[in-house]
Amino acid sequence: ETAIVWFRRDLRVHDQPIFLEAASRAERSLAVFVLDERLLGPSGKARRTFLHRSLRDLDSSLGGRLLVVRGDPAEAIPELAGAVGARSVHVAADFGPYGRERDEAVEKALGDRDVELVRTGSPYAVAPGRITKSDGEPYRVYTPFSREWAKRDKGAPADTDASTVAWIEPSEKDGGPRAVKIPDDEPPEAELPDAGEQAAHDHWEAFVDEHLEDYDDLRDRPDKPGTSRMSVYLKYGAIHPRTLLAGVGGSGKGATSYRNELCFRDFYASVLWFYPRSARENFDPKFDSMPMDGGRSAEEKFRAWQEGRTGFPAIDAAMRQLRGEAWMHNRMRMAVASFLVKDLHLPWWRGARHFLDLLVDGDLPSNQHGWQWAAGTGTDAAPYFRVFNPVTQGERFDPQGDYVRRWVPELADVEGKKVHQPWKLAEPPSDYPAPIVDHKAERQEALDRFNAL
Ligand code: FAD
């Protein structure tokens, strides 16, 4: 018998439960990836490039036997099953709104040919939908969710490698006219981390050796290399969270804090699973009538925010880090999101879209809910009246100003924490803008609009 192993967000050969499942059912399998315009179109250059590099790495692990096709999976996968005579197609379940709809369409089209779509595992430590309150209702608040999550068995990493499955050498005819080469890179402005499974493991081991112990103390410091930067590897499944959970060890403040963050990833995926509309709409509909700014001046402010020229050094450093590394520190993601919504009075989804365009780890559940949290519209969101102060955020979390000087060259010569308020310098640098808004006044404006709701 023959099977198909369809890779999606699990571009690795180790810890692959779908390999075990495919090998238990069929003697030989065809490895496939589908380039799907509906996912790639909105992805942005950084993510597309990282994906292509990850695919090249996977293909090389499989001895050049990854078949890449382009098209609608609901047509391409059944055609391939027909071409190689497969009886089953193996995937890790997808829980996003699009992935879920796509898989239902694929499953139906396969069913018409008597081929089974077999879902094994997911990209999460605990798959979305599994954790509910005792009455079956979804959790809308993180802390009780996390208590339940902590009790669940996350499973041990599956013992697999490329040789777990006997791979079919794909022939041109298998993929038909849809078969393509892995596309060339379209390098973004940003410098990207190394792609691939080995890079993910190397990166993870270095983090555990050098930074895990101090993670809890330093995770809020954008000036220090204190976080793991594993988000992009998790996004593409170069490594599975259960491997990270197995690697963080038991106790210790760093390990506990790291586990909490991985739980946040599962929580937001769970919220999106139960409330798919929260990718686009306010989780709390009360905010639907919140007035937002529009017109030319709002557009100019939005552009200044995107380009990192708001005149608030910590905000600008972060927005330039986003361009420079296709990544931004979590503390700064919260700060720039709060700034867009509460200082500039622009809707969170515009910022969320800009993030998804540039982030290499851009991921719908964590991004949209991270934005809704900062905007005050989300699940257990920051209360709306909690407005981040763009200056004190910088002074607190970048106390020596190193982060600002790294990303804002106009301020490179300003020493120490004075860099956070250049307007107070005897001679402010002439090439750095003055603040585009008065934070105190805009904070009041945001609160007034909120109180009027
Ligand atoms: P670490 O601090 O090392 O955390 C370890 C892992 O835990 C991360 O890789 C990530 O998988 C998970 N994690 C950590 N914090 C969060 C969180 N707040 N929510 C969900 N998961 C978390 N994360 C994304 O992966 N993709 C996004 O598109 C994304 N957009 C965000 C937008 C906003 C406005 C905010 C506030 C947060 C967003 N996050 C997003 C969450 C978080 O900022 C990133 O996961 C984190 O900065 C990635 O860096 P790291 O791997 O060094 O994190």
TrEMBL record:
SUPFAM superfamilies: Cryptochrome/photolyase FAD-binding domain, Cryptochrome/photolyase, N-terminal domain. Residues 170-197 are annotated as: Disordered. Residues 185-194 have a biased composition (Acidic residues). It is an enzyme of class 4 (lyase). Gene3D superfamilies: 1.25.40.80, DNA Cyclobutane Dipyrimidine Photolyase, subunit A, domain 3, HUPs. GO terms for molecular function: deoxyribodipyrimidine photo-lyase activity. Residues 1-125 form the Photolyase/cryptochrome alpha/beta domain. The keyword Mitochondrion does not apply. Its cofactor is FAD. It comes from the Bacteria. Keywords: Chromophore, FAD, Flavoprotein, Lyase. Residues 170-184 have a biased composition (Basic and acidic residues). InterPro entries: Crypto/Photolyase_FAD-like_sf (IPR036134), Crypto/Photolyase_N_sf (IPR036155), Cryptochr/Photolyase_FAD-bd (IPR005101), Cryptochrome/DNA_photolyase_1 (IPR002081), DNA_photolyase_N (IPR006050), Rossmann-like_a/b/a_fold (IPR014729). Pfam families: DNA_photolyase, FAD_binding_7. Its EC number is 4.1.99.3. Belongs to the DNA photolyase family. PANTHER family: CRYPTOCHROME (PTHR11455), CRYPTOCHROME CIRCADIAN CLOCK 5 ISOFORM X1 (PTHR11455:SF9). This is Cryptochrome/photolyase family protein.
